[in-house]
Design goal:
β1, α3 and β2 form a beta-alpha-beta unit. The chain contains 14 helices and 27 strands. Bound molecules: adenosine-5'-triphosphate and magnesium ion.
């Protein structure tokens, strides 16, 4: 370098090896890191509530938090926000960790639960009471709602608002001791009943909920609200940047107020827009509705936008990462096209999936001039995009299956596949010509084709150089294996479904007649394949049996998103 004279100009960023900020959140974090706001420290967290499986929106948030921490040399915590024992389950806690690990995220020993802080949070609540900043309110939920007012009307103070500190402390302790009925009392912050921000109109901090908790058992008859637990948990863990979605923007003044009153370390909250995808729903509540109504077979039904469904369907972590990077983070709400996600999946699988031949809807072909009993091994390339993936042998014999739609008795113009008298190329094998059609005498349905092959055309080239336009895929009938294929389409036909009613009836098409090349006999779940001309597939981990595989179509080959992008005129 010295010889070229470049070494004298090194930007500060290069010197400190920090990545350049690429979005507004990274810029804010970087600015804080440089100004030494948190002693130069960066710690983030991903805080799922264990009340459902993670969806692709959570992946966006998790990837963002984990990568910002990594880029700044800090930890990212995984914290279960388990403050609502009525909706939460251990199954979700397990599934969430499995999905995050699958994405490639690693929280080391930074695994936490908001319920670990119940004692601390209780102490914080007493601290607020002693400061005269919280009171025990005896209004019913319904009454409290009426007192609260709305956007046009200011709230009215609760009749219990001015209870003396000692009485509040006594009542709160008795709440904690389990002396009162569910819902008969609550602990509320004493902030401002006339605030334009409804979150500041004396929000509830603790409610009586005499139900056991999956981690704390029946130790607590009262539970902190999400609003009280969330910010304080971040503070307890020393989180520097609490990155969350926009709906919490209006809660930020409350979180700030609580932390200031408690005089505890103050994380910086930064909000960004939730990810929405077309043709699906994204909130866990709606996804649970789909599961409970039986509209889908479970959280991991391959049509769901959950990570477990995507994994089962064959989407790869690499594709999801690229997708989340490309959509970026913004303050504006955004709905991203499902087609873009599928484009990212195709882009990844195009490079990594082995190409094979499989026939979904088989039509029998008999090659009349092919010697009875002869089997030839045809050399097939595993992935032309990547020569290092090598090749394999595919058996060829007198009886084959081709795709029924690759034959037409009366072909329309520009149909270059098989028709009576026409010649077509069998991929990696020979040229064949159709010389006869067998039909079911009753229905008239074509049941088999009689063909002849050109023995000189091995590999697919005509010896005399005659032009054969069409190339179709095939399998050797006696060597092929049977399989079921599941073809998926959008869960909802509407781009922005209003509710969960009316799942697209064509969102799942089951094809039981598939015949696949024999190399697929030992396909494993998680290994992607491209069935040539049809799409990307993988073995379904849940419903396959030895000798009876079920293949999920991850995505079809046609890329509507990539195609439209290429058509956009250059500006
Ligand atoms: P949902 O409304 O889908 O049930 P949630 O926000 O209630 O989601 P949490 O478990 O509370 O789910 O979310 C954990 C983290 O994931 C939060 O920080 C939340 O902001 C973030 N998150 C949830 N949904 C999305 C989304 N669609 N896009 C980006 N981040 C999201
Ligand atoms: Mg939530």
């Amino acid at each position: 370098m010295t010889g070229k004279g470049f070494d004298t100009v090194t930007t500060q960023r290069e010197a400190s090896r920090e990545p350049a900020a690429t979005d507004f959140i990274r810029s804010l974090v970087q600015a804080d890191s440089e100004s030494g706001k948190f002693g130069g420290r960066v710690a983030t967290r991903f805080p799922p509530e264990p009340n459902g499986y993670l969806h692709i929106g959570h992946a966006k948030s998790a990837l963002l938090n984990f990568s910002i921490a990594a880029e700044n040399g800090g930890p990212c915590h995984l914290r279960f926000d388990d403050t609502n024992p009525t909706r939460e389950e251990e199954e979700y806690v397990r599934a969430i960790q499995e999905d995050l690990r699958w994405l490639g995220l690693d929280w080391g020993d930074h695994l936490y639960y908001a319920s670990d802080y119940f004692d601390q949070l209780y102490d914080y609540a007493e601290r607020l009471i002693r400061k005269g900043r919280a009171y025990v309110c005896g209004l019913s939920q319904e009454e409290a709602r009426r007192y609260r007012g709305d956007y046009t009307e200011p709230g009215r103070p609760s009749p219990f608002r001015d209870r003396p500190v000692e009485e509040n402390l006594d009542l709160f302790r008795r709440m904690r001791a389990g002396e009162f009925e569910n819902g008969s009392m609550s602990l509320r912050a004493k902030i401002d009943m006339t605030s334009g921000n409804l979150n500041l109109r004396d929000p509830v901090l603790y409610r009586i909920l005499n139900v056991p908790h999956q981690r704390t058992g029946d130790r607590w008859p009262i539970y902190p609200t999400y609003d009280f637990a969330h910010g304080q948990s971040d503070s307890i863990e020393g989180i520097t940047h609490s990155i969350c979605t926009l709906e919490f923007e209006d809660h930020r003044p409350l979180y700030d107020w609580l932390i200031d009153e408690l005089e505890i370390p103050h994380p910086q909250q930064i909000e960004f827009a939730r990810l929405n995808l077309t043709h699906t729903v994204m909130s866990k509540r709606k996804l649970l509705e789909l599961v409970e109504s039986g509209a889908v077979t479970g959280w991991d039904d391959p049509r769901m936008p959950t990570l477990s469904a995507m994994r089962r369907r064959g989407f790869t972590p690499a594709a999801l990462r690229v997708f989340c990077e490309r959509i970026g983070v913004a303050r504006r709400g955004n709905t991203v096209e499902m087609a873009m996600l599928e484009h990212c999946v195709r882009e990844d699988l195009n490079r990594t999936a082995r190409r094979v031949m499989g026939v979904l809807n088989p039509l029998r072909v008999v090659i009349e001039n092919y010697p009875e009993g002869l089997v030839e091994e045809m050399e097939a390339i595993n992935n032309p995009e990547d020569p290092s993936m090598g090749s394999r042998k595919v058996p060829f014999s007198k009886e084959l299956y081709i795709e029924r739609e690759d034959f037409q008795e009366e072909p329309p113009p520009k149909f270059y596949r098989l028709a009576p008298g026409r010649e077509v190329r069998l991929r990696y094998a020979y040229l064949i010509r159709c010389v006869g059609v067998e039909k079911d005498p009753e229905t008239g349905e074509v049941t088999a084709l009689r063909c002849v092959y050109d023995p000189e055309s091995r590999g697919g080239q005509a010896p005399d150089g005659r032009r054969v336009r069409g190339t179709i895929h095939w399998v050797s009938a006696p060597h092929s294996i049977g399989a079921e294929a599941r073809l998926y389409d959008h869960l909802f036909t509407a781009e922005k479904p209003e509710d969960t009613a009316g799942v697209n009836p064509n969102s799942l098409v089951v094809v039981t007649s598939c015949r696949l090349e024999p190399s697929l006999a030992d396909a494993e779940p998680g290994t992607p394949y491209q069935f040539e001309r049809i799409g990307y597939f993988c073995v379904d981990a849940a419903d396959s049996f030895p000798g009876a595989p079920v293949f999920n179509r991850t995505v079809a080959l046609r890329d509507s998103w990539g195609r439209r992008r290429r058509q956009v005129p250059k500006g």
